[in-house]
Amino acid sequence: MAAKYVAAIDQGTTSTRFMIFDHTGQVVGLHQLEHRQIYPQAGWVEHDPLEVWERTCQVIQGALDKARISPHDLAAIGVTNQRETTVVWDRHTGKPYYNAIVWQCTRTKDICDALANDGGQDRFRAKTGLPLATYFSGPKIRWILDNVPGVRAAAERGDALFGNMDTWIIWNLTGGPNGGAHVTDVTNASRTMLMDLRTLDWDDEILGIMGIPRAMLPRIRPSSDPALYGTTPKDGPLGATVPVCGDLGDQQAALVGQTCFSPGEAKNTYGTGCFMLLNTGTEPVPSTSGLLTTVGYKMGDAPAVYCLEGSIAITGALVQWLRDNLRFFDFAKHVEDYARQVQDSGGVYIVPAFSGLFAPYWRSDARGVIVGLTRYVNKSHLCRAALEATAYQTREVLDAMEKDSGVKLAALKVDGGMVQNELLMQFQADILGVPVVRPKVAETTSLGAAYAAGLAVGVWGGLADLRTNWAMDKRWEPHMDAETRARLYKGWLKAVERTLGWVE
Predict the structure, then answer these.
(1) Do residues 37 and 77 make contact, with C-beta atoms less than 8 angstroms apart?
(2) Lowest mean pLDDT among 201-205, 221-225, 245-249, 466-470
(3) Per-residue pLDDT averaged across 394-413, rounded?
């Protein structure tokens, strides 16, 4: 019998999951496990790559067991991942030389500042679409090469391999030291600050400036690859041979899962951070408003499709901070219960610049603030202000996107964990002044990776097939009057000003 399901490994910032989908895009199996967040010092964030791989093996088995599905029923596997998080490991042993340096980590500020001293923050933007920022992988690789003994020599010998988390997972999934595929896709490569957006290849000039040996970099492949990256070995975590042929950075995967295949279509994913992507077609559009130009996807031999992206570092992570650091509640979903106990935030704004500000500011000298505090304010007001912070940051990104693209958004497709928070979704529609639309399958990141893999092996015939799977779950219309919207947003912009220049 032909294999009838497609699966996705979704390796995220706080957890890893394995999701199994049928031909209609419905979830038939899911297992998810968290991994540790490691904070060696202020501003530094790490993950243990071996722990992440162990969790990956566990969630694969857990999802198959729960769904009572045999691995032989899987037609293909796709991978999606937290982008920019950087691992360097030994190709012979599979052991990392150092923990994974997470996208949120700010330890590379001095490297970025030194690079910017000779050409400014936009030194590489014409080629890569990215400003110099601690966010991206290139400076993280440089930090490991400069600070971990023996790694530079190993990289120059060809013994040290670099990958974002997609590359680490695919390498291990397809055999690891025994012939594992050392590959990445165009979307993840476009987040390293080392790939030329037009050639879709590593740029030798930037590699030379950064001091990164080309030998340690993975091969760049399409996001959906009929030639396959590799297959899972019979003695691997699946216990069967399954093609691995889809790979997308998590935000691009959500774009595919939301079927935003036409120029002008946009989605916003609400997770640890918030990421809005606007499809701009087959030509990269440079940003003058603090956005990133990035690859959206590349399906087989078809031309690459590009996006403008607004990246926000802290959204869902602010709710986790209220839960874990301030002990406001035991479960993140309770933030909505407290927020509903008040009519508004009581004049409070929280700007969560915990690791600086991303789009549209790109200021690593910013730090978080809570402003507008009075004796009247209680826990519920702070919970509401935390949710509103996500909506305000999204508004800033949307304003920049409309300025760069000249496209006025008609509605915003949303996905990710926070879209179950109906208070947030209504406030988001109110502060944007456009409808917000949630799909029936809200976990579109995993779905997009499954689509990429399934397209490669013919489970779906093309992008039109995927569009027929998309269905709306709920739509929020804006109810706020223009005067209130303008007043609240003006207060937010004033609060953001208070975060700037905090770190000398």
Answers:
(1) no
(2) 466-470
(3) 89
Q: What 3-state DSSP class applies to 245?
A: strand
Query: Is the distance from CB of 266 to CB of 414 less than 8 angstroms?
Result: no
Q: How far is CA 156 from CA 36, 218, 219, 293, 476, in A?
A: 31, 14, 17, 31, 54
Token code pair at residue 313: 């570092």
- Name the nearest CA neighbour of 296 among 280, 312, 310: 280
What does 139-185 look like in DSSP terms, one character per residue?
HHHHHHHHHSTTHHHHHHHT-EEEEEHHHHHHHHHTTTTTT---EEE
* Sign of the dihedral defined by the CA atoms of residues 169, 171, 172, 174, in that order: positive
Q: How far apart are CA 467 and CA 473, in angstroms?
A: 15
**Cβ contact 364:109 at 8 Å:** yes
* 267 Cβ contact partners less than 8 Å away, ≥ 6 residues apart: 254, 255, 258, 260, 276, 277, 412, 413, 414, 415, 444
pTM of the shown model: 0.87
C-alpha gyration radius of the chain:
22
- Pick from 143, 173, 139, 177: which is nearest to 161 by CA? 177
Q: Helices 250-257 and 444-456 sit at what angle, rounded to 10 degrees?
A: 80
DSSP 8-state class, residue 218:
P
